[in-house]
Amino acid sequence: MTDIREYWRIFRARWYIPVLLTVLTVLFSVLTYQAPPPTYLATLRFTIGVNANPNVTGTDPILAAYQASEYIRDDFVDILRSDMFANDVNTALNDPNLKISKGNISGAVERQRRIMSMTIAWNNPEQAARIAEAAAKTLETQNAKYFAQLGAAGATVTLIDNPSVSPVIQGLRERLDLPIRALLAFLAGIVIIFILDYLDDSVRGSRDLEKMGFKVMGEIPDR
Q: Containing domain of residue 13, as a range?
């Protein structure tokens, strides 16, 4: 209990330091805050595979097509993240004011590697849908270039869903940024007042005199 009272005395003597530091931190954060630009995700799903070639001899053509389709799906995500695919999408867009990079495109394989999805991240919902449509068209018409091992025929791309555009919701980290800053500022202020109290060699009570070797006969309270 004595330690708690001592801590309270230390805090009460310089309470304004953590409070002021917290207020300044909040004000600075609010004044310098810049809202991030909105981001929209355009997502579409499709399947990609190889048709069975009945002219193949020495092996089951259906099994060969199935295995080739698996190889394509293995390489799918890396192809979407390549500069080559991004450049081809820009060519399909044919808009000098609308250029994307490989960082705007991502892909994933769903449902035990049978269905693929492609996502376009952009700051305008209408343009995100346009880019997704151009990306799907590029994959449909130029996939033979990406899957050269299949020969001139390429793969068959079947679009399952049209591009679906949705806004990116602000994450928990962004929402808690200001409260966390305020809490850290307050804790830093607490540390400062305890350091100042430790460095303060003034006599504040009988305990300080006893630590200095004096014997206290009595004490008159300040109140």
A: 2-34+172-211
Reading the block at residue 39, the tokens are: 């981001």
pLDDT in tens, 112-123: 656 888 999 999
Q: Which residues pair with 27 in a beta bridge?
A: none
CA distance 106 to 44: 11
Are 71 and 22 in a shared domain? no
Q: What is the value of pTM for the model shown?
A: 0.60
Whether 218 maps to a domain, the answer reads: no
Task: Give dist(CA 150, CA 221) in Å, integer.
Answer: 93
Q: Does any domain span residue 96?
A: yes
Q: How many CB atoms lie within 10 A of CB 104?
A: 18
Question: Which is nearest to 182 in space by CA: 16, 12, 24?
Answer: 24
pLDDT digits (tens, 9 = 90+) for 51-99: 544 444 445 444 444 455 565 666 778 888 889 889 999 999 988 888 9
Mean residue pLDDT of the chain comes to 79
207 Cα distance to chain centroid:
53
